[in-house]
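Figure 2 data, in text form.
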Amino acid sequence: MSSFSIPADVIQCVFDCLDLTNICSCAHVSRYWRKLARAYPTFWQTLFLTDDSLSLGEAAFFVDQLCARSEPDSTFSLFLRCTSFCPIIFDHVLPHLCANIHRAKELSLVLTPSSLNAFLPLFSHHAPYLSILRVMIHEATVSMPRLNALFQCHTSSALRRVLLFDLALSDDIPPLSHTVDALQGVYIRIPAELPRALKWIPRCRRLDPLTINGLFLPRPSFLILNSVSSLVVYDEDWLTFSRTVHIPTLIIRYSNPSPHGVRSIVPIDGPICACVISTQHSDSSSSGNCGQAAVVTQDGKDIRYFDYLDAEYTSSPTFLTAILPASRLVTLAVSLEPVFRCLCEMKNSFPSLRMLILGIYALPSEEDLPSWGHIECLRLSAVTLQRDGILPVCISATSMERFVTRTLVYTGTSAPRVVLRGVHITGEARDISGVSSVVLRGVRPWFACTPEDSQRETSAVESVLNLPRMPWLESDEPTAW
């Protein structure tokens, strides 16, 4: 065990028990360390093992951690990776793991078809405390064995979150009788196995089913969606089903949703808060710009989130017209370029808009402004200019006055206030015409959001969707949300 992984409190306790003579004796230190460490939760509660350059000594230490406690309620979390033929794990670790799997609370297993056969006995054991299960099969094949047992989870109601990645289940595996919190089924190499996974967990609150190109994806009419409050959609055909449209939270993950599909899922009643941005995106499959959009009802009950949108499509009049219900929009957060510019060029009118939040790198020049156009927002009460990035942003009072007065049309009797977040201003801000006041504030942490209503709704979006936080999607006025 490396020194940097030993908890500081354990080291302190060990050396507090030793005098100078014993400190100079490695044997005494080792004995005291083992005795004390085995009693600490940091020793046995979170376990990790991989077959990458695994030695017998490392396997023995893992077994020592695993067997340090025997009480049934001494639950542990385990991440185990075995993607090769590894006799050390098969012969020295698996027997002890089978004997202690009943104490597992969280399991993450990464296997291959070649190692799956050796782990089959493990899956047949009962794990009554298991609440989080992740099983990923690397380079799965259609000929690999199917599991007819999965820790006997159907006999208890402890299981809450499940991720199955290319794991083949038997038709005979007993389905769960309770409702789990979240099921993510990712079937890329063996898409035909997804329906069996959905059959094993027929009821869940958050459902995320993914196959390559939508192959073998069952229709919503064949699923039990009564308990689903959050659904990830990869196939636009799903948006044609009324049972899908009425789910409180929908996450749309394909690049070019049709305008008709977008309109069909936007909440039809009450005030709306919306966010449309273009972000820098990079993952293992693609890189470059992509778009994100969210539409939330003012009470936070209905959420529509669009991810991995085509960047050009995100800022197109077609998409913006479909996703923004102009007459009911009360809060709008957009990136200055290119989304807000497109809205100005379209000369949109938002009669109910109270708050506008713009993520900026800089303001447009005086020569460029005439080509922008404007939006009409007669009830606008606040404009927030938020730094959209990590680099400093500095604007002049003159450029801000010019930008606000030329791109926004509002009533002259109630000019909006301007809030600058993470934006430095040069010149005399007090003499700016066309605004009621200018407020300077620092950039908030990504997790911060006020007022209370805004915090509740934004937190709901982020907790349900597990999204990267948008630092400038913030509210400065209690009446805005």
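Caption note: The CA atoms of residues 446 and 469 lie 6 Å apart.
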